[in-house]
């Protein structure tokens, strides 16, 4: 768990910046300029150090395929549990929010919103889908911390 504390701490710090209401410029900078610059520098540094002989291997393809399987299984499991919650709540819960349980913030919640509004224009699931979405991020951070602790 100690290895995941910085990940969870940065998530909470970002929420604090956004929700406290007095740091609008910092919040916007963190969401836009800082995030974009960090993404660019991370992409350049990883790309500059990666050789094609190291990257294009069967092991890399296996890892990508396992990630795809994990993403699909997570989405299917979330939909199944969402369906169970719908039955147990007497139909008050839309099972599509289960698909947002993967840690692809905020894209998974947006996809749930778009698909649900395509079926019923009166559906507004975005904020409800963000709950499982953020829970997926926290779960991923804790799992990464556990893996870091066990593998180091």
From TrEMBL:
<keyword id="KW-0812">Transmembrane</keyword>
<dbReference type="InterPro" id="IPR005661">
    <property type="entry name" value="OadB_MmdB"/>
</dbReference>
<keyword id="KW-1133">Transmembrane helix</keyword>
<dbReference type="Pfam" id="PF03977">
    <property type="entry name" value="OAD_beta"/>
</dbReference>
<dbReference type="GO" id="GO:0006814">
    <property type="term" value="P:sodium ion transport"/>
</dbReference>
<dbReference type="GO" id="GO:0016829">
    <property type="term" value="F:lyase activity"/>
</dbReference>
<feature type="transmembrane region" description="Helical">
    <location>
        <begin position="34"/>
        <end position="56"/>
    </location>
</feature>
<dbReference type="GO" id="GO:0005886">
    <property type="term" value="C:plasma membrane"/>
</dbReference>
<keyword id="KW-1003">Cell membrane</keyword>
<feature type="transmembrane region" description="Helical">
    <location>
        <begin position="63"/>
        <end position="81"/>
    </location>
</feature>
<keyword id="KW-1278">Translocase</keyword>
<feature type="transmembrane region" description="Helical">
    <location>
        <begin position="124"/>
        <end position="151"/>
    </location>
</feature>
<keyword id="KW-0472">Membrane</keyword>
<protein>
    <submittedName>
        <fullName>Sodium ion-translocating decarboxylase, beta subunit</fullName>
    </submittedName>
</protein>
């Amino acid at each position: 768990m100690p290895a995941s504390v910085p990940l969870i701490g940065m998530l909470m710090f970002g929420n604090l910046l956004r929700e406290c209401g007095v740091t609008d410029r910092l919040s916007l900078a963190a969401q836009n300029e800082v995030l974009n610059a960090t993404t660019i520098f991370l992409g350049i540094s990883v790309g500059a150090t990666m050789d094609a002989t190291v990257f294009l291997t069967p092991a890399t393809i296996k890892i990508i395929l396992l990630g795809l399987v994990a993403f699909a299984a997570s989405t299917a499991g979330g939909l199944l549990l969402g369906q169970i919650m719908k039955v147990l709540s007497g139909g008050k819960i839309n099972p599509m929010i289960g698909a947002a349980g993967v840690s692809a913030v905020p894209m998974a919640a947006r996809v749930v919103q778009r698909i649900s509004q395509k079926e019923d224009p009166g559906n507004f699931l975005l904020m409800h889908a963000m709950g499982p979405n953020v829970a997926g991020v926290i779960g991923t951070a804790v799992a990464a911390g556990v893996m870091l602790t066990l593998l180091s």
